[in-house]
């Protein structure tokens, strides 16, 4: 019997975020903001918009921070269950430990640091429609094989860096290969998957990979080897894995492009705002210019400065005598007489200033895994 409605979601929010260090030394990568909203919240919004009400969140070392930000899920009209994972042992391992939560329901698995342009609701509906059609008896009395899974794919220029799908003539999956040296296609797996209960047999059957993880590609491959049908959808819009600085800034730019102008803060007569800009309540502009798309958080004061396109300034920041463009600045930062800052990500409580003392020198206090570009 085919389920009539997908009612559960599993969000993975337990990774260490090593590619975004040092920001993620102290914070969950899924809570790094894009356009002043945590990445994880976009996934929760997409899941809620698809009509899913029960959400399990896989959490690791940053569990307390994730719980503090998401709470019980009532902000999105969903019910959240937290599922601890002792170590990041693979996506299939996450499915394995979520067995009690998932039961025998169909579900969507969503990577908490991914952003999609297209609606999740559309993908869910197409999976459900295919399964309903398969459950209906045909004129000759036969029943087509319903899909046991659906994966989302995106054509990419560098498929060797992703899990890659090889498809048959009907668009179903023939083979999946993780980061192949010679890819059979340019179709990379996107971090959104839909499964029925047969995935539980798959994750129980596979063994850890060479890197010691239970790979979801191996689990899906096991389903294919059993003669089961894995359905595919090709993404037309953008997809961003925000795990590195450059994609994070790209995601920030793409989301900022969708902003509608809203000025709730204070703007003095010496300031100018151009284009799609969000100035949150309590933010103050003094003798400054802001050119959108950009967002400036509540309680932030911008004085004698320029905020350029594709900038997201967090809450309670101080920007004085500086230029900021194509940058993400998190809450409680101070940027004073710092010249021009661009293509940058500043973590919480960061202070950037320029001294007038002589002799002139660059003075740095830099932690592990940082990148400093001086000109």
Explain what you see.
- By secondary structure, the chain is an alpha/beta fold.
- Helices cover 21% and strands 32% of the residues.
- The chain has 9 helices and 26 strands.
- The strands form 5 sheets. Strands 14, 15, 16, 17, 18, 19, 20, 21, 22, 23, 24, 25 and 26 form a 13-stranded parallel β-sheet that branches.
- Strand 4 (54-59), helix 3 and strand 5 form a beta-alpha-beta unit.
- Helix 4 (91-97) packs across helix 7 (199-205) and helix 7 crosses helix 8 (216-225).
- The longest helix is centred in the middle third of the chain and has 16 residues, at 120-135.
- 40% of the residues are buried.
In short:
This protein is of the alpha/beta class.
Write the layout of secondary structure elements.
Elements: E1 8-13, H1 23-26, E2 33-34, E3 37-38, H2 39-49, E4 54-59, H3 63-70, E5 79-84, H4 91-97, H5 99-102, E6 107-111, E7 114-116, H6 120-135, E8 149-155, E9 163-167, E10 173-178, E11 187-195, H7 199-205, H8 216-225, E12 230-234, E13 239-241, H9 245-256, E14 262-263, E15 266-267, E16 272-274, E17 277-279, E18 284-286, E19 289-291, E20 294-296, E21 301-303, E22 306-307, E23 311-313, E24 318-329, E25 334-346, E26 351-353
Parallel strand pairs: 1-4, 1-6, 4-5, 8-12, 14-17, 15-18, 16-19, 17-20, 18-21, 19-22, 20-23, 21-24, 22-24, 23-24, 24-25, 25-26
Antiparallel strand pairs: 2-3, 6-11, 7-13, 8-11, 9-10
Helix pairs in contact: 4-7, 7-8
List keywords for this structure.
375 residues, alpha/beta, seven-stranded mixed β-sheet, 9 helices
Biggest sheet, open or closed, and with what strands and sense?
Answer: 13 strands, parallel
Hey, roughly how much beta strand do the residues contain?
A: 25-35%
Helix content: 10-25%
Structural class: alpha/beta
Number of helices: 9
Shape: elongated
Radius of gyration: 23 Å
Name the poorly predicted regions: none
Average residue-wise pLDDT: 87
Tell me the distance between the termini.
65 Å
- Total E-strand runs: 26
